[in-house]
Amino acid sequence: GPEEHLPTGKRIFDVAHLFRQLFSSVKHEPFDCDLSYMYVVKEVRKGLRSSFELKCKMCGIQKTIFSESDTSEELGSVNINSGITSACVFTGIGYNEFEEIAASINMPMMAYETYNRHQQCVIDVIHETAWQTMEDAGKEEAALARQLGEVDKNQIPCVTVIADGAWSKRSYNVKYGALSGVCLLPELIDPRKKRGLTIRNAPRDTIRDYSELKSY
Fold first, then answer.
1. What is the percent of the chain where pLDDT is above 90?
2. Residue 192, Cα to own-chain centre: how many angstroms?
3. Measured between alpha carbons, how far is 164 from 185 in angstroms, rounded to an integer?
4. CA 122, 131, 154: angle at the middle one, nearest 5?
5. Which end of the chain is more exposed for a tag (fewer CB within 10 A), N or C?
6. Which residues pair with 54 in a beta bridge?
């Protein structure tokens, strides 16, 4: 008989996309075979995204079913690999902690290289967002300073900045620092304008130096 590869363990599926694929496979030519005649030949995993190659026992036709759509990002949703990595960054855990979660539910884990690649993309977005937000706030505060006459002899706006920061700890007996932190700018010149920008859980070795923000 045909060699069947039946995957084991748990997977994460886009349910709507899964059913669309199954319903489109109800009948296929030339013998009007249905899904009950098909078996799994192999599974290919890319991180947490899986594709399953099916083959019909009657006519030999092959079909591939995916755990999520290739165009999920184009439709406004985040693919599973980016989504899981973002969740790890935002909640302050890392690859090892998520690996334990995956093992506890019997789900194959993505490779560290895959996780690291997606994590870098998330970090880049955080950096770009933080930089753009601070530049926009700086321009507005510079305009307010000029209106109030808060400028030096070279007409450069003088902006008073109040800042605070913190870093979470999991233990004080050993060096178990959590992968999370917060930076907050409560207010600048105008106390009515809150400039709070919370940057949570950026890995410490990726913290960017924002001391080079230009004057406006």
1. 24
2. 33
3. 7
4. 170
5. N
6. 40, 63
* φ, ψ (nearest 5 deg) of residue 28: -140, 150
Token pair 């994590």: residue: 119
Q: Using 50, 70 and 90 to split pLDDT, how confident is the model at 95?
A: very high
| Alpha helical stretches, state H, 148-179 | none
Name the helix (H) or strand (E) containing 45. strand 38-46
| SS3 of residue 108 by DSSP | coil
Q: Quick one: pLDDT at residue 171?
A: 57
Enter the tokens of residue 69: 């759509």
* Residue showing tokens 């004057």: 215
Ordered alpha helix ranges (H), the chain = 15-23, 80-91, 95-104, 112-147
Would strands 62-66 and 38-46 be described as parallel, antiparallel, or unpaired?
unpaired
Alpha helices (H) in 24-111, listed in sequence order: 80-91, 95-104
The answer to whether the beta carbons of residues 3 and 71 sit under 8 Å apart is no
Residue 71's nearest CA partner among 79, 82, 63 is 79
pLDDT in tens, 19-76: 888 888 777 777 888 888 888 999 999 999 999 999 888 888 888 999 998 765 545 5
Angle at 53 between CA 52 and CA 59, to 5 degrees: 145
Taking only the tens place, the pLDDT of each residue in 163-179 is 666 666 655 665 555 55
Question: Could you give the CA distance from residue 177 to residue 167 in angstroms, rounded to a whole number?
Answer: 8
Element (H, E) at 184: strand 176-187
203, 85 contact by CB (below 8 A): no
